[in-house]
Structures are given as C-alpha cells and as structure tokens.
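FIELD: query
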Amino acid sequence: MHPTIAEILRDHVSLSIACIDRLYVNGYLPRLQTSGQLCYFLGEHLGYPIPSPALLRPIHDRFVREVEEFAESAAVPLVAFRRGERKDLVAARHRARFAGDDGVVFIGVAQERCRSFRATKRKTPRGSVSFEFSRQSVFVNHYYFYVHDLEWGPAFLKIGSYVPYPVKLCLNGHEWVKQQLRHEGLAFESLDNGFLSCEDPERLQALCDQLGPDDLQAFFDRWSHRLPWPLSPEDRAAGFEHRLSLWQVEMSLTHVFDRPVQGRHFFEQVIRDHLDLGRPEQVSLLFPQRLTRRTPPPPAGYRTRVITTGVQPSLHVAYKRSHVKQYFKEQRALRTETTINEPTDFFLTKGLHQLPTLRDIGQRINRTLLEVERTSEHCVLSQDQLDRLQQPTRVDTQRVPALRFGDPRVMALLAALCLFRLLPDGFRHRDLRADVATLLGLNLDTYPPGRMTYDLRRLRLKGLIERLPGTHRYRLTPLGLRAAYFYTKLHLRILRPAWAALAPRPDPIPRPLRLAFDRVDAEITRLVDQAHLQPAA
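FIELD: result
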C-alpha cells in the first residue's frame, strides 16, 4: 500500500526549504514616462530650443558605441540572438566557459518590442515647427548583459537602447543564497536552482529568509555604474535615474525526498484527489482574495492542468495573472512554486519594499496547498466527533441542534465550507449565505439572513468554525475542514453514485453494487426465516 501524503511529507523528507526563486525586476525612469517629461528633458535639461526627435539619435549612437567599446576592451563576446533562439541555452554555453568569480560573461543583442515615443511634426500658421510625442509600440535593439555577480551569482540585465530606456533584471534567490553559503564556508549540494542537502539546514533557511529589497537595489546600483548606460552621468545626477519595481516574483517550497519513489507516490495521491483545484471558489484558497464586480474571473475562467512529460507529472493552478505549479524536480524533490506576475492581483504596489509581503503571500499559498492536500486525503472523523455532529449537544446552557448527514441543508452548508475562497482570511455571513443558497437551489429571499445566522451558530457551537477576534468574520477550524471534506466526499463520491444502484432497476441490466445489496438483503431474509422471527403486530 502506498503511503499517504501526510506520511510522505512527515517521514520521507530529508530537507525542506522555503526560498524566493526567480525574480524579474523592472527599471524605469519616472521622469521620462510622458510626452511632457520628454519635452522637458530635451528642452529644459539638454538646453535645446525645440524638443526634436533628432536629438535622441546622438544619445542612442553614443550608448551603442560604448557597448561595443566595452565588449572589445573587456574581451567580452557580443552575440546577436537569432530569431526563435532560446537565450537560456546560449547563456548556458557561455557560462560554461566563464572562469571568473565576477564579471560580464557575454553581451546579447535582440530586437524586441517596447513602449517608446513617436514624434509627429506640426507647423504653425507662422511657419514655425513643433513636435508632438506619443507613446507607441516599437521594435528596438535591447542589450542583454549576462553577468556573474559576487553576491548573486548568475544574473542578467536587459537595457533598451531607445527612450525611455527600459531596464529589466533577472535574478535568482537560490543563487544568492548559494553565494552566501560559499562566503560562510558552509558545504551544500545543489539541486538545479535549489538545494539537495546542506550541512547546516537551519542556517540555510535563515539565509533564505534574509533576502530583501536592499539586496536587489545593491545589485542594480553596482552594475548600473559598471556597465555602459544610455544616460550620461550628468543626466543621472540631474535626477534622470532608474527606479526599480517588481515584475515577477517566484516563491518556492522544496521538499527533498529520501527516495525518489516517494515523489511518484505523492503525485499519484494528489492527482487522484485534486483535479478540480481550478474552480473559482477553490482557487482562491491559494490566492486569498474575495471576488467582486471589480475583480471578475478571467474570460477563460480559472484553470487546473495536470501535465505529464514522459512519466513525470506536474500540477498547475492559475488565477488571474498568477499561478501555482507543483512538480517532481530532478527525480528527487517536490517543488511547490507560486509565481506572482502582477502584485496588484493582491492589492499591492510594485515597489521593491513589497517583496517581504509578496514572499509571505507566496509561502502561505505554498503551505496552504500542501495542507489542503493532506487534509483532503485524510479527512476521517473519529466516532466521538461523528456522534457530536450527528446528535444534539449542549454548550453551557445552549442547546445545539444536530448536523445530520444527508440533511439537504446540512450537506449544502458543509459543501459551501469546502469552497476555498472562504478559508484563508475568514469569511462573512453574506459570503457563506450566497453559496449555501446556490447549493440548495434557492434564491436569497428563500434563504434569509436569519437562517444563515442560525446555521452559523450551529457551526460555531459544534466547533467547526470560530470567529476572528474583533471582527464579524469566521474561519474553519481543523475539525471543520475535516468534517466538511468527510461529509462532502462521502456524499459525492460514494453515496450519490450509488443511488441509482439502490433504487429499483429501471432496466433489466443489473449493476454490481445493486447485485451486492440484493445478496445482502437475501442473506438477511434467510437468517430471519431460520430464526423463525415474525414481524411485530
């Protein structure tokens, strides 16, 4: 018999590490984002009477010339990426030949789309000339500086060659931690962009937790002054300096198994139980936001994909512009990975200072997914717990009605508690009421607030929910989550499919379950006859 998810994570994990993984960071010029700011830059700052687009060509040419001179003087390869070529593969080949501890590995050039300025020439009635600028999509050359940094290891900066000179950084939190371990002399074994083992796991996790916004800013400051830059030192000193914002943040939780087979067992259990994580109410357990008219579901809906490459499965759950991925990494580890592509999905700004908050959200999502997988698989109730739910009880002087299995209202109530959007930050009276009414097939008028209040009282006094202190919100208790799963799974997966077999057969074709019950019924009748029992008058 295969072990359960809980047993695998408890007994067969040799290392568990939570760490920021990949980071994509935008660099933008706050003072060069509008046509008015561009006119100020060309006119007031550079001192030209007419802000003409022709003034941007010398800046572009100077930057390109400095890149070429830098590549020649530092003996750094300057590579033109071909269309459709995977840049990561090109970078891997060049990195394999790089022997230094710090420096530029190579420079890549690619023509890519960006939002830039186009000028429209205008003539006044007196014959004078002016230009109007508008933001449009254009194709321009971008320069990829692939570097090896003393603090961050492998990384790259991408710099646009045309105004407003966009910059992107690609960093990896695991690589940053590896560099810190090397500085401290701690031995470790790598697992791609992760860890297979470490001589001091506690210090390893502490370093993972230390990575913060200052480390990202220090990297940018260091390399933006070492590399060729579109704007001159005088421009930068005048305030035309890039500001960083978060574009994509990946948070990973890695469990290294003591034996690879445990990873297969884990996914067999997960895939069996969690093909429907992408339903709207459920996916929000992983992305804890309440859906409103201002935050409608995406046009294509919420998606769950279970992908198998060869024999290696992976589970993908999407929400808005972010997603969770769970996969078997290098035959050794379970990687649970949350990628936040848009911080505003969680009502946060994109500033670097939000990195700790996004890390907390991502790690909570990762751990919540694993906890749901554990609880969903093992949702058995003890006899005492089941009796407490099935029978009326007393709490102090209050009588608490039963929550009997099979009662339509009770089943709808507990099924609604399984909706993931109600779990992480609690739920309110009106949230649960709408879902229960839907499951009962009623409108809100026929399931009034008073009935919902009565049902919430039953749930609370039975210990299935608890009120968050100082609020009118509730959250599920561990018992509540198990009970909700137990009732719902028993009804949906066992009893409901068996109703047709228990009912009189509509056709002469027997069902296996119906035949089994017929045999049981015949055996009971035979025993009754042998005992000469008579029905009561």
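FIELD: remark
The radius of gyration is 31 Å.
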